[in-house]
Amino acid sequence: MQRCCGKITSHLWLWSTLLFLTLCFAPVMLHPQCLDFKPPFRPQKELEFCIMYKEFGCCDYQKDQELMSKYYQIMDNFDYSGYTSCAGFIFDLLCQECSPYAAHLFDAEDPSTPVRTIPGLCSEYCFQFWNKCSFTIPFLSGDPYIANFRENQTSLCHYLEIQDKDYCYPYLLNNQQLTQNLGGIQVNSDGCLQLCLEEVANGLQNPLAMVHANDGTHRFFVAEQVGLVWTYLPDRSKLERPFLNITQAVLTSSWEGDERGFLGLAFHPKYKYNGKLYVYYSVEVGFDERIRISEFHVSANDMNEVDHTSERVILEIDEPASNHNGGQLLFADDGYLYIFTGDGGMAGDPFGKYGNAQNKSALLGKVLRIDVDDNQRGPLYRIPPDNPFIHEQGARPEVYAYGVRNMWRCSVDRGDPWTKNGKGRIFCGDVGQNKFEEIDIIEKGRNYGWRAKEGFSCYDKKLCANSSLDDVLPVYAYPHRMGKSVTGGYVYRGCEYPNLNGIYIFGDFMSGRLMSLQEDKTTGNWKYNEICMGMGLTCAFPGLINNYHQYIISFAEDESGELYFMSTAIPSATSPSGVVYKVIDPSRRAPPRQCHYNPLPVRVKSNLIKFVPQETLVGIDLPNENFQPQSTESYQWHQELSDHRGEIGAGVITPVPATGTSKTTKNSRRKGRHRKNKSKLERAPHIQTGAVRLVGDSRSDRGRVEIYINGEWGTVCDDLWTLVNARVVCRQLGFQHALKAAKNSEFGEGKDLRILLDDVKCVGTESSLLDCRHAGVGTHNCAHYEDAGVICGNSSYVAEV
């Protein structure tokens, strides 16, 4: 470093104000991205060469050393004069590979253009570089275009420049919108955290649990409400044969909203050695409905299949109604099995004088704790000796906590990776009655208030006024204008996204809202932030999406602690519209190789089904990968897409099929970059076959459905037009719901167009109408007076057809 530090120090002032914050919220106008198409990171080992990026950037120590070596190799070709004149420039240009905006500077955001060999420069800086150091260009780049332009200052700098001066080097270093709080979670003007998703599994029937076996294989197991559990390998391929199939025993139905079914799954902490797992499901015994907790063993012949003959019923509880069935099973840090039951159903817990939840002699409306170790002989479970009511007359000894209405999804906090702070806490979402949803932390012997209280407010005023209630209040509660059925989540403790550490992420089944809580360590209070899907360029990374199906059923952790959730487009136990999503923070990742793990081998005896993603990024249309542009220029495709839409006609149009989205952000796109010497027609993005638009009404959420197939727009006949078909169209247009499937040309006849689709029949999971069954493109036995339409919306109201 002594050979160059004297000359490069003067350039470090550009980054003197760049401070890294462990967790902070940054404006949503950024798209930091590295040359490997991933977010920047904080290096594990401090950089020695490109030290302006030691807090946050795209280089680890190894890459930093490579750049240092390259710097010395280049500088060895120059005399003292060349060294003193150009050391700083060479240093600057090499180190931009470490910039948090390296992908932008080197044109790597656009997969259809080759990566630059010299970062995009502001014109004034380029002129200075050329005047002093043009002779160094062959040592920096082998680009033949740059070699041809080397002798011409104007041509060279024109070739190297980025038109938008806010984003060229070195001006982007002084752009406060880009450098302020760089590396923090991005947040919009409403305080909504901007995150992204990665699709992990799809085609599932109401996936309501995803668990791992903690056996080193990094498999994950997804349970469906109908009674099937599927095995997924670390590469996300699915085994063709189910891990568990108890569909014949499970009580459920295809009715939307049926709460009965297979509800919970937990692997024993020593599953790797004893092969034991536990399930929670609804059954019918005679005319009675019950919840059943059973123990199974994995097959001795196949590690990916349960021995179905090994079932032992640990516990059965009568259910007086078909709702409020609870369903969570988990093993906490103490090694005991926790069972979370509902209050028995109906409304207001009307059972007995005080309801089931306040009655410690009933097992409903409770958190139960039992010991299932060493149960091969003797009782199937034992009572832990420190259970709180073991000596209370009339109380069931299994009760660990009470006053619970219907806790849906609980989790154990792994604790801070370094300090272990928070380790062992049990978080639960408790579904409310008609006013509030709540998040609780479960503690031994505590009363969680129901039916005396709902959230922080009184529900049963007489019980609420009882001085002996001694209930514990939620850590957070929200009103029904925000959502009507909480889905408990997890405190993020994974490795890949350090900014999320300590944030509790949860959701709401009905509203589709994703939410977060973060504890203030000094006051113990919890700060709320909504979570929105990043729009503009926020999620423009390979494989990421920014939308999900509305009905958030459950959350999950994988074996390494990364966070997932499951949702569906149609809340029916038999609808194959369920998807598993991984939660991604696009603002910062862990350093390369920090989160590496080696899964133990899995012996597979079943066929594998390769994972094929179905979801797409919405709100942004990436350049056509088949388009071959000039070598280093880019273009303002956001504006051109808008222009092109104006040319092809009015109405809502989607060039790329999409699914329903969560709350999104406004004005979150970065300023575009220009491509020169291209006509608008040549530059306009191609409309993808299967795109749809709505016409015939001035409102953007309704109209006649027109579809683009093989270069032409056409209409759809309504012979078999249903609300399920309409849902496919509305999700493709970015709406959460289809409110009506309009028939008989309610929005006018498209007489100027051909009828392209007839007899369309969708199941609800398709990404476009072309994926549904139909009579064939252009084949029909109908007329335009039967043209189909839709009314879409984002409310939960659904119109009957």
Going by CATH, the architecture of the largest domain would be 6 Propeller
The gross shape turns out to be: globular
Estimated radius of gyration? 30 Å
Would you report the number of β strands? Answer: 37
- In the CATH scheme, what's the topology name of the largest domain? Neuraminidase
Largest sheet: 8 strands, mixed
How many helices? 14
Structural class: alpha+beta
Tell me the helix content. Answer: 10-25%
CATH homologous superfamily (4th level) name of the largest domain: TolB, C-terminal domain
Report low-confidence residues grouped into runs of 5 or more: 1-29, 623-685, 796-801
The total number of structural domains is 3
User: Average pLDDT value?
Assistant: 87
Strands ordered across the widest β-sheet: 23-24-25-26-3-29-28-27
Assembly state (oligomeric): single chain
Question: What is the CATH class designation of the largest domain?
Answer: Mainly Beta
Strand content: 25-35%
Span between N and C termini?
Answer: 75 Å
Biased composition (Basic residues): 666-678
Keywords: Disulfide bond, Glycoprotein, Membrane, Secreted, Signal, Transmembrane, Transmembrane helix
Organism: Maylandia zebra (zebra mbuna)
Disulfide bonds: 762-772
